[in-house]
Amino acid sequence: MALWMEKGSEPHTETEIADLDAITALKHSTAIELKEKGNEYVKMGKKHYTDAIDCYTRAINQKVLSDSENSVLFANRAHVNLLLGNYRRALTDAEEAIKLCPTNIKALYRAVKASMSLNLLSEAKQYCEKGLQQSPENDELRKLAKQIDLRRSECERHESQISKAVAVAEGIVSAIEDRNLKIGKASFRELTGLKKPVLDEDNILHWPVLLLYAEVMTSDIIEDFCETDMFSAHLDMISSVIYLPNMFSESCTPLPWDKEKAYSRDAVELYYEAGSGVGLSRKEILRYLLEGTAGSHLESFGDDEKHASDSLHHGTSTGRSPKWVKVNEKRTLYSVLKEPDMVIPEIPVFFIVSRISSCYKDFRTGKWSPPWLHD
């Protein structure tokens, strides 16, 4: 019997030929029935989509249909995979259908849809153009062509925004490295939000600076403290840049929390906490600078790990008393930030205390520490 003939052998007798013809006819009939049954399953709804795929697959596996017929089966299976959200499988099926029959408009349409779902816009564009060559007036393909062009424009704009954000962040990191500054993890995000330094066209860094009044841990922010500015200039002008007018003015009403009336301009001193925190690697600094930008999702920044900061800068995390370093008001911000024991917690933080405050002695002797150390 022809059923058991070895692979590659040819039928010789009329009986063998008749048997093979009968088998082929039976398989062809089975394939057509499976195709129609698959179509019925699709019409029955989502619960039967997997049954439809099974029918189309079994019909293809009969291996007796013509290329054009098999192209329809692959295109039908692509359609069901699209409905199920199996976009990669849908694209594979659509591409197989196109190979078998390059003029199969439904297969081209489904290749476009699958490619768009996978964000393969170049491929989607190519399939759409091939479809429109076959059917120039096809409204669905023309709509998809417009959607593809719009998506590509949006992607190009987004990529441009990412490139710009990365370039800005890398410029700031390079400036920080050139200045031998050490950046650590944020300590006061709840007060500052996501504030970052800015590098101007003259390669000068502008920092947002947090001022903390140690006695009561209230705060103010200087939004733009140029690295070349002296502290005295900002303290002299602080009434115009903070939320409490005329602070430190001799004639102003004391702040609600300044019960001792100790915070006059001549009485205040400025300090930073030495060696507080751990220096971040270049990659970690880049990630911080890209937060809130188009590049916030990026995980890789090239060969940046070789620039990682290997030295650790221990401070309050060690459990010891903090070390306060007094800032000479006549110094510039940069001259203080570059101190070897300064670790900037994302943005510079300075503590203000009054010499005539009852808190001053404890602060100076190291008995005072930020509230989080008492938790």
Automatic annotation (TrEMBL):
Protein name, as recorded: Uncharacterized protein
